[in-house]
């Protein structure tokens, strides 16, 4: 398998070079040169596999022979041995038509662990095999940072710097990042929004000379390995329903701000997984909902919400979808992204909008509606949703059709967002690992939101 850029100005590269490159050197995003097509027989064979066995089969399609199968198996097994549930990503039934896919059983109680436990081990493997330096730079709206740090803390040959928006993540998310005192970890609390952090990251990676001089590697979902790892749980969830004769018409409702998690579902669908409908659930920062409805991609005013990890206006993975929407035409994608940079908006023609609406349904969940959903499901089903998962469930309810079942992706443990949940007078008991964070000192540096200030910190750290 080779990987190419959405903007077409990077020669095809292998899997390891792709994960090391992160953001393509031409400013685009890396995608597989072709998407593997799975037969019905293959899907049937995979249906009885464990999570780790399934992950190995899917990764093998994209890694080819760059990593020997026995070594890839060890990477996969080590990555998912850290999860608290034997199923890794169990599916729980809420009612006749709604299920939740619990993605929060990893070390930091967030879905980002699914990809970042693997990517952390993969980076460590590459560092050992190639005797190379790995300097990871990432931005987080809350969960990516803690998961990434947990995946690489203390590992030889790797240093990691994470940017998060100052005062705009939940307290537990902040503590999970900033109570880590390992020498290879730097937390920068940036005065601004997550979009500011993400912009800085993409611009620093686009500075190819700086990127190569300081051996910068990506941990955000601009890294294709993140997307590939996340496709696995779509297959696994579908198979769990199929094993219980519940797979006639299966939808997935995905809380999203950065388009990475739902793009993984889109990729699984293009591989041949018979997903009936992909539902894109946003909060009041609903640029993606507006794109699906109107064909206009234009950031609006930033809104702080009860689901802060989705408080994102510019979705970094959107460009990957545009690549496929425009028939893998890199020149067209480059022109669109240049237009977006110059004008701050993209408008697609009617035929493309029709294709988008065939690929996705979308619904933007208002703040009170999010909290109402938490209350309703807690009272009716004794199931406590975190506010991001609640957006996915609310969208599933809004777009429900008789004869279909919808799996809402449960993206975080509710303990990570107690501030929102307490607004509806619901009390919860923290897991011991989270409760212990409140007694630990914090280590972070507050910085301004300019590229030069971040560069100064990186030069000193790396």
From TrEMBL:
Pfam families: PALP, Thr_synth_N. It is an enzyme of class 4 (lyase). Its EC number is 4.2.3.1. Keywords: Lyase, Pyridoxal phosphate. Transmembrane segments: none annotated. CDD domains: Thr-synth_2. Residues 2-80 form the Threonine synthase N-terminal domain. One of its GO terms (molecular function) is threonine synthase activity. Its cofactor is pyridoxal 5'-phosphate. Residues 98-405 form the Tryptophan synthase beta chain-like PALP domain. Belongs to the threonine synthase family. NCBIfam families: thrC (TIGR00260). This is Threonine synthase. The gene is thrC.
């Amino acid at each position: 398998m080779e990987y190419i850029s959405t903007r077409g100005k990077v020669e095809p590269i292998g899997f390891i070079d792709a994960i090391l490159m992160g953001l393509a050197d031409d400013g685009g995003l890396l995608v597989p040169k072709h998407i593997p097509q799975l037969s019905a027989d293959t899907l049937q064979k995979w249906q009885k596999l464990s999570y780790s066995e399934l992950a190995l089969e899917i990764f093998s399609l994209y890694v080819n022979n760059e990593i020997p199968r026995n070594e890839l198996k060890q990477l996969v097994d080590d990555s998912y041995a850290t999860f608290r549930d034997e199923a890794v990503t169990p599916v729980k039934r809420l009612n006749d038509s709604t299920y939740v896919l619990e993605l929060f059983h990893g070390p930091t109680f967030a879905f980002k662990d699914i990809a970042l436990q693997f990517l952390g081990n993969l980076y460590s493997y590459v560092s050992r095999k190639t005797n190379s330096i790995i300097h990871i730079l990432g931005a987080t709206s809350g969960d990516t940072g803690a998961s990434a740090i947990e995946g690489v803390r203390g590992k030889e040959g790797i240093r990691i710097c994470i940017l998060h928006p100052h005062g705009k993540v939940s307290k537990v998310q902040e503590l999970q990042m900033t109570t880590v005192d390992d020498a290879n970890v730097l937390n920068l609390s940036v005065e601004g929004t997550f979009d500011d952090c993400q912009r800085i990251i993409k611009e620093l990676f686009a500075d190819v000379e700086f990127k190569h001089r300081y051996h910068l590697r990506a941990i955000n979902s601009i890294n294709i390995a993140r997307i590939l790892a996340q496709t696995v749980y779509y297959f696994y969830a579908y198979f769990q329903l199929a094993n219980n004769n519940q797979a006639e018409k299966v939808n997935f409702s995905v809380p999203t701000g950065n388009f990475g998690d739902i793009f993984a579902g889109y990729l699984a669908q293009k591989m041949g997984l018979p997903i009936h409908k992909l539902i894109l659930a946003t909060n009041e920062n609903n640029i993606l909902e507006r794109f699906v409805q109107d064909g206009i991609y234009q950031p609006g005013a930033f809104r702080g919400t009860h689901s802060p990890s989705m408080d994102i206006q510019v979705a970094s993975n959107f460009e990957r979808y545009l690549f496929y929407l425009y028939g893998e035409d890199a020149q067209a994608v480059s022109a669109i992204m240049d237009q977006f940079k110059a004008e701050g908006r993209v408008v697609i023609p009617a035929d493309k909008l029709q294709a988008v609406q065939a690929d996705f349904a979308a619904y933007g969940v208002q703040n009170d509606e999010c909290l109402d959903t938490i209350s309703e499901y807690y009272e009716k089903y004794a199931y406590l949703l975190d506010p991001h998962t609640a957006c996915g469930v609310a969208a599933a309810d809004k777009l429900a059709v008789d004869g279909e079942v919808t799996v809402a992706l449960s993206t975080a443990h509710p303990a990570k967002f107690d501030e929102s949940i307490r607004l509806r007078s619901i009390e919860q008991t923290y897991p011991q690992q989270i409760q212990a964070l409140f007694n630990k000192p914090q280590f972070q540096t507050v910085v301004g939101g300019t590229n030069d200030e971040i560069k100064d910190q990186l030069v000193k750290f790396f």
